[in-house]
Structure formats: structure tokens, C-alpha cells
Amino acid sequence: MIAGELGTAMPEEGGPQLWIKTALSSKLGFVAAWLLWVQMFPGMVMVASTIGPLLGNSFGNPTLGNNHWFVLGCILVFYWIITLLSLKYDMAKVGGNIGVWLGVYIPIVIMAVMAIAALIKNGIMPGGTLGHFSMGKLIPTKDGLSSLKYMAGISFIFTGIEMSSVFIPRLHNPSKTFTKGIFVSLIGLVVLNLVNAMLVANVVPMGKMELSNITQPILIYCQILGWPTMIANIFSFMVFIGVLLQLSAWVTGPSKTIIQVARDGYLPAKLGFHKQNQYGVSKNVVLTQTIAISLFALLYGFMKDVNGVFLTLTNATTILYAIVYLLIAVAVLKLRKDQPDLDRPYRIGKKGNGLAWTVSIALILGIAIIVFATLFTTSLSQSLLVVIISVIFTIIPFIISKYKNDQWLIDIQKDMQQK
């Protein structure tokens, strides 16, 4: 809803960076753009960590998915291949749609069909993570509260929903239809994820959930139904290709924001972040982010717990994204105060600022709950690592801004004119 108001009031390209820059300051706009770029460093490692288990399952060797060295090797090899291809070809155009079908739509249908068949055959399995329902289980226990460590990971599902605001201009009567559409889509997302989670939790044994192994429930479904495990091999290979194609589309996407930031003079010209090829890709930006992603991937070399690394990276990615949401929440209120007469085709509340304050405070409180619940229920080492990653990446843009000088923009403009 906040993005709907800000996006229609400022429909120019830039998104969160533009909103925060206009409402708060150029420095905080740069911080937002920076965070939206660097959150992909742990985020892409998290996504790429599924490659190892998928490849192992494709060849009928599921144990490889729990080998941290194999997972590390797969991330490094395949991500660098995708990066180098992205510098030569328009990979987003080549693999975007196919990747979504192979990596998301078809797998969801396969999992749903097999899950329902397994439920019909065996019912609720007492040894599963889900277990049988009882009224006593509604009261949280110390062990039950430990599951809050997954809260940030679940919240990550909804990050990026603000981009739906770009479709507002196409809507008839957006004040009503956009709000309804957002709530319908959110309810749909929650219901689909809950149902799928419960079906998976029904068959995966308690304490045996493998977070980065998408194929784990498929193998269990095959055992329950007596179907050939080749189904799991084909499923894994299909999703493996889908993930690679989706990664290829994501490699260059976030880099476009940092290219614009560099061209606005917020980064030194010598970094070359303002330069791009015929596909709109900055070689220096893409190589820098791939090096950073490779360094994050080394966590799989230092930590043997594949689940632990996956959870740490998910939490760090979500918290970095959440900082941008905090700035957006403040931005909408600041803009209401400073520019009350600004044209807002979509507005939170017909009159006054009460609803805008309510929505913004709800967002801020929600983020605070997610962050504290996540940090206080994970292990001390994982929490410290998440905090360190978040603090360092948040401080860096402020340091860059401190040493920013006008010569950066002059050098960049001169270099752009020569081309």
C-alpha cells in the first residue's frame, strides 16, 4: 500500500531509491539502492545452494546435497559460468520465462499432486514434522518457540511485493482495486504456502528437514506411493535447469540500479560501474557482485551444517531488505508532511494521515518482530554473523557518502561524453 502511493506519486524509474531520495535525502536514497544491490550477495548464495542437492538427486545420489564441499563447488562453478555467459549474451531474455516454468510452476504442480496422493494413502503420519493435532499444541512451548528462527526466511517469500505498484496506472479505480488486489494476492500466497508446507511437513520426519533440498519430499512421496525414484531424478534435473536459468536472469537485474547510482556520481568513476555493454550490463558491477557472492559461498567451506548456512544467508538477506522497507515507511510519512498537495493517484486513506500512520507503524513493528524473533531464536554464532553482515553492508554506503566529491560526477560525465 505504501509502495502504491509512492509509486504513483513518483512514476519515474528508480523505485525505492527515488522515493527515499525525494522524501528523505540523496544520501539515504543511495543507501537504499546500495542495500537492494548487496542483499543479493547472500541471497544469490542461498538460491544457488539448491544447485548441489538438485544435481546430486538428478543422478540418484541425494547424500551429495548434505556435503558442504560439494554444495560450495556447485555454487562457485555454476555461478561463474552464468556470470561469464551474462557478459556475452542477454541471459535474462533467453532464460527468464523458461526458468520460471521449469523452476516454479511445473514443480509446484508435481509436488501438489504427489503430496495429495500421499495424504490420501497414509493420512497424517505420526512421525512427521507436522504430527497429529491436539489442543495442547496450541500453547507455545520452549521447543516450539525455537521455530521462530525461520520467521525471517518465511518473510523473505513476500519481499519484492512492492514492485506490484508499477501496474497501478493500468487499473480502473486504483484506490479500491489495488488494495483489494494486494490483499487477495497476500491471502493467496499465505494459503498456498501454508497448505504446501503442511503437506511437506506431514511426510518429512521430525528433525530431518533439509532446507536447501527441494527434492527431499519428492523422494519420500515416491517411497510412500511406491512410484519409481526416477520421478525424483527427472524432477531434480528439471528444477536444476530452472534454477540456473532464473539465476541467469537475476545476475544482471539488480546491477541496473547500481549503474544508475554510479552515473549520478555516488561512486568513483575509476570503479567503472557506470559503463555498460549493448545488453545494459556493467561488466565491473557484475564481476564485483560475483566475487562478493563467491566469498559468501565460502561459508559452506567453513561451516559443515548446510541447513545452518542456508538459514544464516536467508536471514541476512531478509534483514538487509527490511532496512529498505523501514526507510520506505518513514518516507511516506515525511512526504505527507512536506508535500501534502502532491498528486497521489493512489492514496492510503481518502482523507487525513491516520491510515498512512497506521500502515507505516504496522510495517515497522512487523519488521521489528521479525528481526528480534529471528536473532533471539537462532544460535549465537548465526545471530552474530547475521548482525555483522547487516551492520557492515549498511555502514559502507555512509562511508562512501562521507568521502563523495563532485569530481566523481564530472569524471563520469566526461567519460560518458567520450563514448
UniProtKB/TrEMBL annotation:
Signal sequence span is none
Q: How does it sit in the membrane?
A: Multi-pass membrane protein
* Pfam entry (one): AA_permease_2
Keywords of the record, alphabetical order, are: Cell membrane, Membrane, Transmembrane, Transmembrane helix, Transport
| Origin superkingdom | Bacteria
Which residue ranges does UniProt annotate as crossing the membrane?
28-48, 68-87, 99-120, 150-169, 181-204, 224-247, 285-303, 309-333, 354-376, 382-400
Q: Report the protein name in the record.
A: Amino acid permease
Q: Which organism is it from?
A: Latilactobacillus curvatus
